Amino acid sequence: MNALALKGPYRAAARLHRRALWALPLLAAAGLAVVIGLRAWAVPGPGATPYDGYGFLQISMQYAGRGLLFLPAVVGAFVAGPLISRERESGTWRLALTQSADPRTWLRVKVLLAAATAGLGSAALIGVYRIGWTRVADTYRLTWADRGAYEASGPVLVGYCLLAVALGALVGQLVRRTLPAMAVAGLSTGAVMWTVGSLRWSILPVTTTTMPLNGNPAQQAPASAFITDTGLVTGSGERLPEYACWARTQSLRDCPGDMNVTSWYTEFHPASHYWPTQLIETSLALALAALAFYAALRLVRTGRP
């Protein structure tokens, strides 16, 4: 155990922020106990309601997924505020520089300690979430592509937490006041997640299928697919909204002859796109994290006070 113990500046930093660093492990342990209890209580059935075990597990997983969406922003705010800016604001960081530690070492210790905690903690929370989510997957708001369930069930959450650490380190040096730094880092992390999330389903090409107008468009894609668009196709290949005929005939399939509608089309992502999208998005988050950390180190090397 002595070989695994933290030494030098890492030990000092861990002792200083030990309460905050224990937050994620304790949250994961508590979540594991709750999820195991809910799974034992949950019995799937067609008549499940929010008041029985299965329905309560569904609702719990919905809220848990949405809650974990905010985890990277919280991590970024903590790193920017209490971890970096507060020591800069109070001047206590200069004490570390008197203990044979240069500014870059001081920053590196802070970032690596936060990254290890955030990475391992978020990975544990993903594991806990998946234990509950796999029992209720593919139900309302809990499909593999739903916002919240998608992030909380895969490595992309770890990537965003590590990106939040790097952004927090950068913002913490640029904004030397604790509360403003926390706000900027949290909002910056959230903005990156929202931007990438809005482009997520453009990474891989969609699958497109067509069927005759008298067919059922709901049967064009597998039940597990994430449908991105559906509509009508004319004889010339033009695409129309799915309710284009309804506006004139009050029927989805009874289209006027002058519209020349010939078939339905559906665009979707199959469930097999889940892991490739997760890995590509995680790689992008890690690349942005590396750039942010490099910029933070550059600020130190250029002698920014």
In short:
60% of the residues lie in helices and 9% in strands.
Descriptive notes:
This protein has two domains: 8-203 and 273-301; 207-272, no CATH class. It is 60% helix and 9% strand. The chain has twelve helices and four strands. The protein has helices at 8-16, 18-21, 23-41, 53-68, 71-90, 93-97, 103-136, 149-152, 156-174, 178-199, 246-249, 274-301, and strands spanning 207-212, 226-234, 239-241, 261-269. A four-stranded antiparallel β-sheet has the order 1-4-2-3, with no helix packed on it. A hairpin with a 4-residue loop joins strand 2 and strand 3 (239-241). Helix 1 (8-16) packs across helix 7 (103-136), helix 5 packs antiparallel against helix 10 (178-199) and helix 9 packs parallel to helix 12. The mean pLDDT is 86.
